[in-house]
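Retro notes
What went well: the complex prediction finally ran end to end.
Inputs used:
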Amino acid sequence: MDKLASMDPLKNPFSPGAGSPPPELAGRGPLLDQARITLGRIKSGRPERSVLMVGLRGVGKTVLLNRIRELADELGFSSILIAAHEGKSLGELLLPALRQVLIQLDRMAQISQKTKLGLRILKSFFNGLKTKFHDLEIGIEVDPETGIADSGNLESDLAQVFIALGEAASDRGHAIALIIDEMQYLSEKELSALIMAMHQISQRQLPVVLAGAGLPQLVALAGRSKSYAERLFQFPEVGALDPIDAMLAVQEPVQEQGMQFSDNALQEIVRQTKGYPYFLQEWGYQAWNIASGSPIEIAVVKRATQESIRRLDANFFRVRFDRLTPREKEYLRALADMGDTTQRSGDIAERLNVKVQSIAPVRNGLIKKGMIFSPAHGDTAFTVPLFSEFMKRIMPFEKK
Ligand SMILES: Nc1ncnc2c1ncn2[C@@H]1O[C@H](COP(=O)(O)OP(=O)(O)OP(=O)(O)O)[C@@H](O)[C@H]1O
Ligand SMILES: [Mg+2]
């Protein structure tokens, strides 16, 4: 084998990047099996809790949602995929997607009054929103169903839209998968409206399922919005891969190309990345480009570590750091110095020499930006794996 040519960067199988499908989706079999069961049950009109996956940055939530969408499509669902973000309301994000699904239902063979009604209700929902967002466009050529879903109160309107959608789908013997990424960015009101709408759907056993993902604070947010959220949703945790799966995630793609990592090299990758999917892709990617042949040895991985950290510092970590205010940076720097684990919020305040109450707005700002979360009341932890080490690199000295 021509060794140099065989490490052709063009053939590099790894895919570090937000939502990029990995060459080997390691360790997620049980989660996907569960999703398959949930979808299958909803499709056949059986009750099942919707799925909200939670996990830190870069663990593979978006990749899983995309995979769930494919599964839903294979099972004959119509799926809607949106990603919440700061600065755009849930209504605005949902409207075009819901419109598309209803129009798709409307085009199916026989005429369905329920679908027509669904479209009219969507139109009136749109009218309700329009008073808030003047430049909205919808382009549905039907008269609104005046008086339904147009109150402008999201909680009642959204439920009515969902019921109409569910009934239209059910009338067609069809099912709908609503897939929402970055759910932690929804406001409490929006989350509450969404939960309430899904509650109505499940009471009527309509064929609509919600598959969502978000940072770990989503569980508490959902519980605060509606206390029954726990009974309505499953919250599977998506975390780092265990060492065996982590090794598989990098070894398989390389073996696919007729090459391999040595055992020591694999162990070093697991040690450095702690099994976090994003980092596995990054380390694999760098190691491939540095290696001159197979097996890829530990010395190559050590160089890959330097290169990966340099790249992460310039991109993955950096973009997040640049969005912080000086006080937020100080807060995270103090947290970083206390270690990579969960800390008591009181201890962080003490370290910063301030009262817990006076630093609370800074902490809340960081939670909103998705930088930290509260694993339990009064606790604080980073949402971005390995961020504490980055904070120490970028701010070598803690300001006291
Ligand atoms: N099971 C897996 N095995 C190996 N690599 C994976 C796996 N899941 C995801 N990845 C890789 O991890 C990276 C991050 O995936 P993804 O963007 O889905 O994470 P995320 O949880 O959505 O992150 P964020 O919270 O920042 O949106 C991608 O490069 C992807 O290819
Ligand atoms: Mg994502």
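What we learned: The first strand starts at residue 50 and ends at 54.
What to try next: split runs per interface for comparison.
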